[in-house]
Amino acid sequence: MSLALRQSLYSTITGGTAVTALLASNTAVYPADDVPSGSAFDYVMYGLSAGGPTNDSPHDAENMVYTVQAISNVSKRRAVAIDDELRAALHRASLTVTGWSHYYLARIAEIEYTEVNAEGMEFYHVGAEYRIRLQKS
User: Fold this and answer.
1) 25-69 pLDDT, tens per residue?
2) CB atoms within 10 A of CB 63
3) Cβ within 8 Å of residue 1, ≥6 positions away
4) Contacts for 116 with CB less than 8 Å, ≥ 6 apart
5) Which residues neighbour 44 within 8 Å (Cβ) at sequence distance 6 or greater?
6) Which of 45, 64, 81, 135 has a 20 to 30 Å separation from 24 between CA atoms?
7) pTM above 0.90?
8) What percent of the chain has pLDDT over 90?
């Protein structure tokens, strides 16, 4: 299910041009554990933060939290603009996850920080955590 959910998130983020028009390329959306070394900025990174089986009924169900964030080395304003489009694309959206019925996707917590590397370059991270609830079809 994890791979199917990752593919669905990728498709939802890249499904329109609102997000991808602001990125280094229309494919600059990466799983957090698979960001290519030396990736051009700006890009979106997403990954599982927490969650798992709900174990609250006899049905297989998952309650997952994914972090989705824009990363820019241009400006915080640029990262905020990308995140605004991520919010529009994801909050209350429907996902198609093979083998699962999706019934909830909502933005639940904000993320915003600046990272400074050893050379003094600043990288602006702006995004959110999204709760995703699924039930096995």
Assistant:
1) 988 999 999 999 989 999 999 999 999 888 887 889 899 999 999
2) 16
3) 62, 97, 99, 100, 134
4) 122, 123
5) 13, 19, 23, 28, 29, 30, 68, 69, 70, 71, 82, 86, 127
6) 64
7) yes
8) 81
